[in-house]
Amino acid sequence: MNPFTYSKPTDITAAVNLSGPATRFIAGGTNLLDLMKENVATPEHLIDITGLPLREVSETASGGLMIGALVSNADLAYHPLIEARYPLLSKAVLAGASPQLRNMASTGGNLLQRTRCYYFYDTGVPCNKREPGSGCPAREGLNRIHAILGAS
């Protein structure tokens, strides 16, 4: 894992001001920390957003909804406004994971989660997702760790 700095701002403006190209936001960080351990992600700075007011679903002036990055998937799926206005979103979130995961996983974390492809995590092989144009072992016939073989 590469060295990095860490900050935990107390308001959203400070978090935004701290951000930059080599910065990643972190809350639970399950996926990001795995990527950092494998040197797939090498941020120079982590911004911890767990203390920020981002756990609400609220109405916007234009009639839409704003979903905070820290809203749990369970809270999102069962929120009355989501169920009433966006029932397919509610159903999709409920279909996406076990209740235990939905209770802990955040909407922001799900949106920022990187690919789950085994080769993406293996820095010893090329990967178009890590380095565009480098190749893709799965497409080129290397089928170890695949559950389905020979499908396009």
Automatic annotation (TrEMBL):
<dbReference type="InterPro" id="IPR016167">
    <property type="entry name" value="FAD-bd_PCMH_sub1"/>
</dbReference>
<dbReference type="GO" id="GO:0016491">
    <property type="term" value="F:oxidoreductase activity"/>
</dbReference>
<keyword id="KW-0274">FAD</keyword>
<keyword id="KW-0285">Flavoprotein</keyword>
<protein>
    <submittedName>
        <fullName>Oxidoreductase, molybdopterin-binding subunit</fullName>
    </submittedName>
</protein>
<dbReference type="Pfam" id="PF00941">
    <property type="entry name" value="FAD_binding_5"/>
</dbReference>
<dbReference type="InterPro" id="IPR051312">
    <property type="entry name" value="Diverse_Substr_Oxidored"/>
</dbReference>
<dbReference type="GO" id="GO:0071949">
    <property type="term" value="F:FAD binding"/>
</dbReference>
<dbReference type="InterPro" id="IPR016169">
    <property type="entry name" value="FAD-bd_PCMH_sub2"/>
</dbReference>
<dbReference type="InterPro" id="IPR002346">
    <property type="entry name" value="Mopterin_DH_FAD-bd"/>
</dbReference>
<dbReference type="InterPro" id="IPR016166">
    <property type="entry name" value="FAD-bd_PCMH"/>
</dbReference>
<feature type="domain" description="FAD-binding PCMH-type">
    <location>
        <begin position="1"/>
        <end position="152"/>
    </location>
</feature>
<dbReference type="InterPro" id="IPR036318">
    <property type="entry name" value="FAD-bd_PCMH-like_sf"/>
</dbReference>
